[in-house]
Design brief:
The protein is mainly alpha-helical. It is built from 13 helices and no strands.
Length: 256
């Protein structure tokens, strides 16, 4: 599977996740086909919850792309600047759609810089880079300034360090790491005894769902894949553009 194919899968997954945030699948299908229904049809609700997993594929692939991009970039400064510019452009649309700040492009930028910090530190003194990156991950997790917080930074580091691992070793690591990164949700689920289907679905969609995206990265063949004029910027422009359109649509629907 080429890098181009992975990016297409990630974009479609992200688009699905954000579109269904504005137009939930069960409600949309009801309005279209069952406008007289008194309450949500259980089958439609089950379909929505099943398809929720499609939207969890995107984030791990985007995180993987940073590790892969750092490894192959010819100009780290331009790469970082590009992420910074589009992260800033996406911030208002992100807030408009979700109501809070810290879009994932800031996370990707921080992950990229953390990879450089790790290599720089290890060049200065053995182990120093790992110590510095641990500090960044902890700080990002505690401050909660960007989407995914320190966990997403850690995932980028893991993708980078496990490039040459056999698939079975990667799979075992991620089967442990992904649920562990959702420790707050897992603790809340058991400590507050939220043993309902709704909460169990929320736990699974966040602790297990992203493993689908991780699994796609196992099929990466190391090739760039198709290219076309301006393809580098298409991926960046798509993010703030679709957020803005969906944010405006949501605002119109709410009558705000």
């Amino acid at each position: 599977m080429s890098f181009f194919t992975l990016k297409i899968i990630a974009l479609l997954s992200m688009l699905w996740d954000h579109v269904t945030h504005v137009w939930p699948l069960s409600l949309t299908l009801e309005l279209l086909f069952l406008p007289d229904a008194v309450e949500t049809v259980p089958a439609l609700l089950a379909l929505q919850r099943a398809t929720d997993y499609l939207g969890r594929i995107a984030a791990p692939i985007f995180l993987f792309s940073i590790a892969n991009g750092y490894r192959h970039t010819r100009d780290l400064k331009k790469y970082a600047l590009r992420l910074l510019v589009f992260a800033c452009l996406a911030e208002y649309p992100y807030y408009l759609l979700f109501g809070f700040h810290g879009n994932i492009m800031f996370t990707l930028l921080l992950g990229l810089l953390t990879l450089r910090l790790m290599d720089w530190g290890n060049e200065k003194r053995a182990g120093l880079g790992y110590l510095l990156t641990a500090g960044v991950v902890i700080a990002a997790q505690c401050l909660s300034l960007t989407e995914g917080n320190g966990a997403y930074i850690l995932f980028i580091l893991v993708f980078y360090r496990t490039e040459h691992w056999p698939v079975h070793r990667k799979a075992l690591l991620w089967l442990f790491l992904m649920p562990l990164s959702r420790y707050k949700l897992i603790w809340m689920f058991f400590s507050e005894q939220l043993f309902t289907y709704r909460w169990f679905h929320m736990l699974c969609i966040n602790a297990v769902g992203p493993l689908l995206g991780v699994a796609f990265t196992f099929f990466y063949n190391g090739k760039k894949g198709r290219t076309f004029p301006g393809d580098k910027y298409l991926w960046y422009v798509f993010y703030p553009a679709h957020l803005l359109l969906l944010g405006l649509a949501q605002k119109a629907l709410l009558g705000a």
